[in-house]
Amino acid sequence: MAASRLGILLLSTTAPERIGQMSARCEDLGFDEVWLAEDYFFYGGFNAAAQALAATGRIRVGLGVISCVARHPAATAMEIASLERSFPGRLLPGIGHGVPAWVAQMGLTPKSPMRALTEAVTGIRTLLTSSEPFTTEGEYFTFRDVALFHPPGGEVPLYLGVIGAKGCELAGRIADGNVLSVLAPTEYVTWARDLGQRGMAAAGRSGTFSVPTYVLTAVDEDRDRARRAVRESLAFYLDAIGPTPLTGAIGINDTVAELAAGGFAALVDGMPDEWVDRLAICGTPDEVAKRIEQYWAAGADSVVLSPQPADTVGSQLELIAAEVLPRLSR
């Protein structure tokens, strides 16, 4: 896949019946990718990906990410293979831990999330690449003479969706890329990509390590209005996940913790404008185009825009296509 791609994230609040239509519109407007999120309990990831793929002919469709414990890896491999055969070369599947609260609601919390993720992804790759029946007894997943009746016709890239240093390196050892969460500044993108490449080298693997990066986005001729459009979404995520390596990459974890102690409202009111500028892509069309190129330069081969606020996605898509895409230097 070529570098410097631009995608759109269709949030989990998108009605399932609109996914095909919106994906087709993204393709018509000139975007390279559509990404979907299997957030529990909104729309189903594989169903949504099938709708997006069926409604389009060129655009790649990313699924970032499904929980490794929500389905048995053999069933996940079967779903991936079916979509790859139906829409060759256009599916970008991602696998992660899953949001802990949602996983706990299903009683699926593993004692060792990293072990569960490793077993799942290793099993999925084995089934996608080998025609021989696969048998193994893992700590979390068992395979007994499992083989896909309809294996994929070509190679399918597998992505992780992890944040910490160990996870980022693991992504390079067992996957082809890492889907980076919203709140990732450019400094984190470079750090995560370097760790992934280090993991690939340690595992003796060759190829390019991909880091598609989700970024909250708002475009407006009024820069302050664009900032306001992403501010509450940033506060929501900071309140939900607190200090992480994402925010640690720009040295704000202590302040994030202090503000988060006061809850969402404290984050909205106390968040410096600098955070908005570094954790999101917002501003005038010229400013947004420059920020996208900064993410590409930092190593994000795909920048996946998440238009904000969510109820303005349609108009934001049109504005980005008309005013931002022509300003990009690719």
Structural account:
By secondary structure, the chain is α/β, with parallel strands linked by helices. It folds into 2 domains: 5-218 and 282-327, Luciferase-like domain (TIM Barrel, Alpha-Beta Barrel), CATH 3.20.20.30; 222-281, no CATH class. It contains 14 helices and 11 strands. It has helices at residues 19-29, 45-54, 73-86, 100-105, 113-129, 165-174, 186-202, 223-241, 245-248, 253-260, 264-270, 273-279, 285-298, 313-324; strands at 5-10, 33-36, 60-67, 91-96, 134-137, 142-146, 159-161, 177-178, 213-219, 281-283, 302-307. It has a 9-stranded parallel beta sheet with strand order 8-7-4-3-2-1-11-9-10. α6 crosses α7 (186-202) and α8 (223-241) packs antiparallel against α11 (264-270). It is globular and about 60 Å long. It starts with a strand and ends in a 6-residue tail after the last helix. The relative contact order is 0.13. The mean pLDDT is 96. Pfam families: Bac_luciferase. GO terms for molecular function: oxidoreductase activity, acting on paired donors, with incorporation or reduction of molecular oxygen. It is an enzyme of class 1 (oxidoreductase). This is 5,10-methylenetetrahydromethanopterin reductase. It comes from Pseudonocardia dioxanivorans (strain ATCC 55486 / DSM 44775 / JCM 13855 / CB1190).
